[in-house]
Amino acid sequence: MKVDLLIVGAGFAGAVLAERCASQLGLECLVLDRRHHIGGNSYDAPDESGILLHVYGPHYFRSNSPKIIDYLGQFTEWHPVEYKILSWTDGRYWQFPINLNTFEQLLGRASTSEEMERTLAEWREPCPSPRNSEEVIVSQVGRQLYDKFFRNYTRKQWGRDPAELDASVCGRIPVRTNRDDRYLSESFQALPKQGYTAMFERMLHHQKIRVELGADFRQWRDKVEWRHLVYTGMVDEYFDHCYGDLPYRSLRFERESFQQEFVQPVMQVNYPNDHDYTRIVEIKHATGQKLPTTTTVREYPAPYERGGEAYYPIPAPAAQELYSKYAALAEACGDVSFVGRLATYRYYNMDQVVGMALVEFEKIAAKFSSKSS
């Protein structure tokens, strides 16, 4: 079989590049995915009760980029939503991310942004250049709030102490001294109105795109002749783990359905200090479905083992040092594009992956243009 592009992975990176290269360049694209569905970890599907679930954990789309929003908007209408979460600890719900409401809960009385600013200034442990996730939080809110909301949650999620992780891990979570209790800060926050899977189906519906599911690249690579390869899987797997295994985290999910409209006050409740799971998600709060039943999903972080599902690259110094060796090999592969969270070993959001794929499309377009001229 001969194709212009062989694309490994039908998630955001692979789907964007297949759609762009097929629709804009007329290239024949073969998309492989070892799973039996498109959409990667963003895949959603209804459960037995008709609840549209994010099968691999909640995917809260948000972006500050009009280019990315407009691009995806060709394939979906949007359902605007402000994602709300709470944190359960010390036997009660707490407003989270930390904001003025959280501070008032801590004090047990009304307060002001000015008082919160003054108090945090007293609690903070000065650290002009935080080197890890512990330092980035204690330098913002001090040790008390770090222990209450961040320390044990991070240990469960990553299997490592926050002091062992890059500052960007906990630095993703905002701290506010006003009453803004949104989980995220981006100007655009929404979900695809009919779901992620429907959006991916439209992206990949093109006469120049062929999709093969349940297809492992290692079993297909000798069956296909391609002019360019787009690889979105684990970079160490591509190079047969020649420098050793990069560390990843995996997840396990437990669903529970209820014969009532809602069981949680908000979409997501974090459990930093109780239970083995990190959070319970009731995504129906965000999707806006009108059904008399609901489903919650408990999320248990787990070590990654070969053959399992890798969800998160681990942002830690030793892991980055090992990745740099694979990055050098990837850089030397002239006819291969490594795109996405696993292929570049970065903890990217969905919009960042879309942006990366759009940039890579321009490089591929230039390459094919130069070859044809």
Q: What would your notes on this structure say?
A:
With about 375 residues, the chain is an alpha/beta fold. Among the domains are: about 170 residues, NAD(P)-binding Rossmann-like Domain (Rossmann fold), CATH 3.40.50; about 80 residues, no CATH class. It has 12 helices and 17 strands. The strands form 4 sheets. A 7-stranded mixed β-sheet has the order 8-7-13-14-15-12-16. A 5-stranded parallel β-sheet has the order 10-2-1-11-17, covered by helices on one side. A hairpin with a 5-residue loop joins strand 3 and strand 4. Helix 1 packs parallel to helix 12 and helix 4 packs across helix 5. The chain is globular and about 70 Å long. The two termini are about 25 Å apart. The model has no long low-confidence stretch (mean pLDDT about 95).
Question: Strand portion, in percent?
Answer: 15-25%
Number of strands: 17
Mean pLDDT: 96
Listing every helix as H and every strand as E from the N terminus to the C terminus, the arrangement reads EHEEEEHEEEHHHHEHEHEHEEEHEEHEH
Using only C-alpha atoms, the radius of gyration works out to 22 Å
Helix- and strand-based class?
A: alpha/beta
CATH architecture verdict of the domain at 2-47 and 66-71 and 192-247 and 313-372: 3-Layer(aba) Sandwich
Please, how many helices?
A: 12
Helix content: 25-40%
CATH topology group of the domain at 2-47 and 66-71 and 192-247 and 313-372: Rossmann fold
Strand order in space, largest sheet: 8-7-13-14-15-12-16
